[in-house]
Sulfatase
Amino acid sequence: MKKTAVMPYILIFFLLFIKISAFRVLIFDAKSFWHIALVEFPLWAFLLSVVLLVAHKQLWQAVWIFNLLVSIIFFTVTLYLRYYSTIPSYYDLQQATQSSSVSNTIAMLSTPWDFLFFLDAVLLVFLARRWRKPVKLPAIKHIAISMAVISAISIGYAIEQPVIDVSYFAKENGFLQSQVVQLYNRSTDTAHASSTKLSEKKLEELKGNKYVKVSEQESFGRAEGRNLFVIQVESLQNFVIGKTLNGQEITPNLNNLLSESAYFSNVFQQIGAGTTSDAEWIVNTGLYPQGMIPTANSLSGKEAPSLARTLKKEGYGSATYHADDVTFWNRDVLYPVLGYEEVFSIDDIPNVKNVGFGPADEVLFRFAADELPRQLETYERIYANIVTVTSHTPFELPSSMQHLTLPIEYEGMYVGNYLQSIRYADEQIGFFIQELKDRGIYDESLIVILGDHSGMHGTLVTKEDQQLLSDFLGHDYSLKDQFTIPLIFTGGNLFEEKELTRLGGQTDIMPTVLALLGIEHNASVMGHNLFEYKKNLLGMRYYMPGGSYIQSEQLYKAPGAKLPGVLHDLKTMDERRKNSDAKKHRKDTETLMNYADTLLTDYMKD
């Protein structure tokens, strides 16, 4: 066959190889020619071969569309990695329309270099003009078969490997292969869950504690008979509590509240891909989220033994408030699973003073306050779950809602916008607390305030932002600063000012709340009463590579796509040499996470 007949096919495959190589270097910092040629490239080449065989009469159009789709995938993965510090699963990619936190900040996440992924779309147009009707190449069948065989071998090998961290797994086994394995694991329900079962006593021993029955714990029943308000604050991180900027408090209302609160300052987020909705799941079940897939999107609809259901047995009516579309992250499925009797969303909350995703927090809190008289008449006691939304990425507020006078170096910066948003959220929390006091409800209530997850993370936090954060904190912005959220328990005559630095996680919130209310929960949970236990062990699946953990003395970040594993002293965040304790904690964390998945499986789709 003439060289001119073969040339267009060589160039088509060559462009794909170059693009895949650029993707590997950018995402994984992986530059091995042989790994690209023998692991990453073959499966993509097989798909391209199928396209060439099926669409020969419209070859250039089909190749152009195929390459465009590959470019969109690579571009999306790049932006996702910059924001979430992990690569997405197939499920995340198909849910791209719901990833508003990324889509709304695409201009901030992307760089001009990223658009080079689409350069081949232009080059293919020139090739199409040069070879308008390429000669049919029988060798494409042989290429397809050989690429299929190589791909089958690599997928077969990958399926036998544990997917501890998706990014690291994709680096070693190929991006497409990692998606195939996740799909396979999901379909066979073998991704993480096992037959592992842990008693409450064994669970506490893994965490380093001596088990104490809930009813015998010192704090049990301290808030018995009280109403319950849980305020989940969007993007609220612990490092802002008690801090000032040019003499201005970032959280003056929360700071004032601490004088009559128990404040846990060493509590870590444990969310997965579902971010805020995952936090709602964890806080209301005491269970871990699914990890790489938003938990709410995987629920079968089976009722969970939740906070609302346990409280209902004690005469509580429950309501949740979120000024967003109830279908976002499948909350229309999540909320019935959690058992709320009343659900208030954008369909109910006045659609006024819109900022970002919907009505501002001041509208949300006013609406919730106005519902209280009716609810107090309807129910013996009330449980209200309020989820704020205004302090969401990209943290841009109109000047009328900005309460801070920022120094010039903070103006227009991501960290400056973040501090303004948190200051606004704090103001609205202060309003709601005052409403409870004015209505005579505060002294009859247990109020829990927490952050759902970090706001300052990913490449949106520039080097300039990092420097401002270092100046603001007085030390380098660390993983601990990123992942810790404030957890505050308050209410009239319940607590004296007290800061507790023992390690906690979001899974601990529900067990702690129920213990304070003097109520036992008749279902397994992963967390425990933070007032009772001093030691803890938390697994992490998102924002840190799988296999990472936080223990009362250590934070271990497992190997990821680019960086090796690192062990930190939890208090100072100084790097430490790996030791026998770290090995034991990694093994115990694996046991703990397997059990977490065993509990979660009951509520997931088949």
Observations:
- The first strand starts at residue 227 and ends at 233.
- The chain has two domains: 3-188, 209-601.
- Residues 190-194 have pLDDT under 50 and may be disordered.
